């Protein structure tokens, strides 16, 4: 998958921008606040129909304007051109594939596989369990529609069960309805739990080998899947906890309480990992996921790397360059504030590399690395 060009009108600070990309490495360079991440986000938008950074759509419109548009020209794995238009006009989001409007945005997801790593992903490590569940859900939904469907059904029944618990007092709980919910919830949970378990054991090897390579075997890492369902069926847990749930007025057991624990040298990465170690782990996690996505979809995803070299020592940066040079990745988009740092890193990259240099007035120079 190759993104040949992007045209933007009124997306965040970019009022009007058209860029033609290199098929290999693209670097967005410039000082803080010039719009490097925003350009990266416009590419993400074309893939996921939403911003990676802003959940409120209106915030993506250039201040004082009332719409934005993003257009991407792509080449698929069979070398066929296609075009994607995404826009927000009159507060309505619309997506078109070759000028034909999608009925549902969800039909677009998966057309442009993409992996992004950004500084805000640190929350996956330092945040609460919800962050890690969201991350695993998003990853699995990209490669496994069945997982997504089970998750949607699980959340729906969970909501119904919680409403029933909230609406009843201790004497009038509809036990028959509760039993029916418990059966459904347990069936969906069993599938979700199995798929999460398989996913962790699949990705763990990839992540470990990337981490070993980048850190040059200085540290060992692990991912543990914490779930009550590792030992019990949800049906038994719900039965056991029914009185407690009745009292709490919500469902206290289930896959919505799962967590994923990241370890470094046997200790918690969240509590004792350095910033560089945490960053290395995140990059290894994203690269590991990239491989999984690529082998599942048989398409090479776009790779978006926002500020990845910051906080890493030179040895680790060099190792990442070696990984990029192995050519397992297709098209890469990198942001950085330092032209000199990127230019000396790119000296070691074999692929064609194009620079896009921004200042506060916008994009002022595009050039291929000599
Ligand atoms: N809706 C918007 N309209 C206009 N400008 C916006 C909008 N949203 C964000 N901005 C501006 O975009 C700029 C941030 O852009 P971006 O995050 O892409 O910077 P960056 O080049 O990645 O900087 P850094 O090096 O700090 O990461 C800020 O100056 C912000 O004010
Ligand atoms: Mg940025």
Alpha-carbon distance between the two ends: 25 Å
Helix content: 40-55%
* Widest sheet, order of strands: 2-1-4-5-6-7
- What is the succession of H and E elements? EEEHEEEEEHHHHEHHEEHHEHEHEE
Largest sheet: 6 strands, antiparallel
Mean pLDDT: 95
* Number of spatially distinct domains: 2
Report the portion of residues in β strands.
15-25%
How many β-strands, per DSSP? 15
Show unreliable segments.
none
Number of H/I helices? 11
Are any ligands bound, and if so which?
A: adenosine-5'-triphosphate, magnesium ion
Q: Briefly, what CATH class of the largest domain?
A: Alpha Beta
Structural class, judged by helices and strands?
A: alpha/beta
**What Rg do the Cα atoms give?**
23 Å
Q: Write down the CATH topology of the largest domain.
A: Rossmann fold
Identify the CATH architecture of the largest domain: 3-Layer(aba) Sandwich
CATH H level, superfamily name of the largest domain: P-loop containing nucleotide triphosphate hydrolases
Shape: globular
């Amino acid at each position: 998958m190759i993104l040949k060009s992007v045209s933007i009108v009124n997306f965040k600070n970019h009022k009007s921008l058209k860029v033609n990309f290199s098929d290999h490495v693209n670097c967005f360079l410039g000082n803080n606040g010039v719009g490097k991440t925003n350009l990266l986000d416009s590419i993400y938008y074309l893939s996921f129909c939403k911003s990676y950074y802003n959940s409120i759509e209106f915030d993506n419109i250039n201040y004082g304007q009332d719409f934005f548009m993003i257009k991407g020209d792509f080449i698929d794995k069979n070398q066929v051109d296609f075009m994607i238009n995404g826009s927000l006009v009159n507060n309505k989001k619309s997506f078109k594939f070759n000028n034909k409007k999608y009925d549902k945005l969800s039909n677009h997801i998966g057309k442009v596989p993409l992996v992004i790593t950004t500084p805000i992903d640190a929350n996956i490590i330092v945040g609460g369990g919800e962050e890690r569940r969201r991350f695993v859900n998003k990853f699995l939904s990209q490669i496994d529609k069945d997982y997504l469907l089970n998750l949607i059904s699980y959340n729906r029944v969970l909501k119904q069960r919680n409403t029933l618990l909230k609406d009843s007092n201790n004497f009038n709980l509809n036990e028959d309805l509760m039993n029916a919910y418990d059966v459904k919830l347990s069936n969906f949970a069993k599938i979700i739990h199995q798929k999460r378990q398989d996913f962790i054991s699949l990705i763990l090897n990839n992540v470990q080998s990337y981490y070993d390579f980048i850190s040059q075997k200085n540290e060992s890492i692990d991912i543990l899947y914490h779930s009550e369902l590792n030992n019990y069926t949800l049906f038994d847990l719900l039965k056991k906890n029914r009185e407690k749930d009745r009292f709490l007025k919500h469902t206290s057991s289930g896959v919505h309480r799962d967590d994923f624990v990241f370890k470094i040298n046997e200790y918690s990465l969240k509590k004792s990992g350095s910033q560089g170690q945490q960053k290395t782990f995140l990059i290894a996690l994203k690269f590991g996921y990239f491989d999984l996505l690529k082998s599942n979809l048989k398409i090479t995803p776009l790779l978006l790397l926002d500020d990845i070299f910051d906080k890493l020592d030179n040895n680790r940066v060099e190792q990442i360059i070696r990984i990029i040079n192995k050519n397992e990745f297709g098209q890469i988009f990198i942001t950085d504030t330092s032209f000199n740092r990127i230019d000396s890193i790119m000296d070691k990259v074999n692929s064609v590399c194009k620079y896009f240099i921004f200042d506060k007035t916008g994009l002022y120079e595009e050039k291929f690395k000599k």
